[in-house]
Amino acid sequence: MPRVAYAWNEHTKEYAGPKIAYNTDKDGNFLLPGKSTWDKPPEPGDHEAVVWSGQTWELVPDYRGKEFYHTETRKRKKIESIGEAPSPDMTEKKPLQFTTWDGKDWTLDETKWMEKAIKPDRDKRLRDTDWTQLPDAPLTAEQVQAYRVYRQKLRDLPDTITFTDPEFPQEPKI
């Protein structure tokens, strides 16, 4: 009857599976196949791999192929090697634009959102309608007034807009 040996990968030393030992020496003892041991490896948990240390099996972190994000710099890091674990200041949660890390999750930084998204858009809309307030603009008095109201609503925007309701005022129809 054959005996089971437990093999490891030559390069990573990671558990590679069972090997059957068929051969015996002259005394009837099984010959251990190369890159294997008689010691049964432990069962790995989540994000763990079993690796041969040279004398025993060890459980090591295994996040290969997973992407993590630094909670301050937001930089992405893909883990490539067995045994490499993410640092405590990294998360698997991908940051969204205009968010900051609050210790548990990415949360909207409303100031950053206002400065980087809303105000530039608002300022462009104001610039694009500057001509409507010139004395020689080809508009009726009612149209000039409608644009005056529209432009005031744009200026009031930082106080009236919210992330959950990011509606800009409607430009008057000419």
Mean pLDDT: 92
Largest sheet: 3 strands, antiparallel
Using only C-alpha atoms, the radius of gyration works out to 33 Å
Strand order of the largest sheet: 2-1-3
Give the SSE string. EEEEEEEEEEHH
Number of helices: 2
The strand count comes to: 10
Helix and strand content put the structural class at: alpha+beta
Describe the fold and architecture.
The strands form four sheets. This protein has a three-stranded antiparallel β-sheet, with no helix packed on it. Strands 7-6-8 form a three-stranded antiparallel β-sheet, with no helix packed on it. It is of the alpha+beta class. It contains two helices and ten strands. β6 (67-70) and β7 (76-78) form a beta hairpin. α1 packs antiparallel against α2 (141-160).
Please describe the topology of this protein.
Elements: E1 3-8, E2 15-21, E3 36-37, E4 48-52, E5 57-61, E6 67-70, E7 76-78, E8 90-91, E9 99-101, E10 106-108, H1 110-128, H2 141-160
Antiparallel strand pairs: 1-2, 1-3, 4-5, 6-7, 6-8, 9-10
Helix pairs in contact: 1-2
What's the short version?
This protein has 174 residues and is α+β, with helices and mostly antiparallel strands. The protein has helices at residues 110-128, 141-160, and strands at residues 3-8, 15-21, 36-37, 48-52, 57-61, 67-70, 76-78, 90-91, 99-101, 106-108. Among the domains are: 3-61, no CATH class; 109-160.
Provide key terms for this protein.
three-stranded antiparallel β-sheet, 2 helices, 23% strand
